[in-house]
Amino acid sequence: MSGAVPGQPAEPVQPVEERLARLLERRAAEGHLAAARTSSLLHRLGRWDRSAYVAVARLSTPALDAPLSRLSHFANHSKPWFLTAAALAVFGGPSGRRAAATGVAAIGAASLIVNQPMKLAGDRARPDRAGHDVPEPRWVPMPTSTSFPSGHSASALAFAVAVGDVLPALRLPLRVAAGTVAFSRVYTGVHYPGDVLVGAATGALLGRLASRLGQRLASR
To answer: Which residues of the chain are under the pLDDT cut of 50?
Structure first.
């Protein structure tokens, strides 16, 4: 999805988007109407994605800068979720231990799928947060991995959905926490919103699959 946001610096090609759009453009040139429409939609989605990133960068919310940057950094390597799993395993009884095991399994699946094949296939460059004026007090270390999709968001939603299915009382607080971590990745400038949405959706799906598999194993 090429095309810079008006008034913003040009960005490098985003292969995850451009590759799909160009493939469809070839089909469109051969007279395939559906391909032409889909290619146009991909370009629009790319522009909206960048526009949403710029809109978050321009939020005047300095009171959130330090808390969200600390949270985003703390979420590296899924630390909040592993600590929660440990607490459930120690204090939650049999249900807590089952929820902890299911949540950790979901994190493992999300990390494997998102951080390996999906990131390699996506190959999207990280945002230029300096060029888009993301306030420096928000910044966390820029990851060296590719941007699409967000691994933090995938792990967060995978754990939240998996554990929430086993322990419904934790469903809302865990999803709020996971959503906050996901938003923090855009707020700190290290991901585009599209990266986060796809990562979160992938994590939620894997979390649901992990909980259903755990239920089947527990019923045997």
So the answer is: 1-6, 9-10, 13
Alpha-carbon distance 129 to 119, whole Å?
Answer: 20
pLDDT, tens only, 77-104: 999 999 999 999 999 999 999 999 999 9
Per DSSP, 169 falls in state G
To 5 degrees, how large is the angle CA 43–CA 185–CA 115? Answer: 80
Structural tokens at position 185? 């990745």
List CB contacts of 152: < 8 A, sequence separation 6 or more: 72, 75, 76, 181, 182, 185, 199
Hey, which CATH number is domain 63-218, 2.40.160.40, 1.20.144.10, 1.10.10.10, 2.60.40.1220? 1.20.144.10
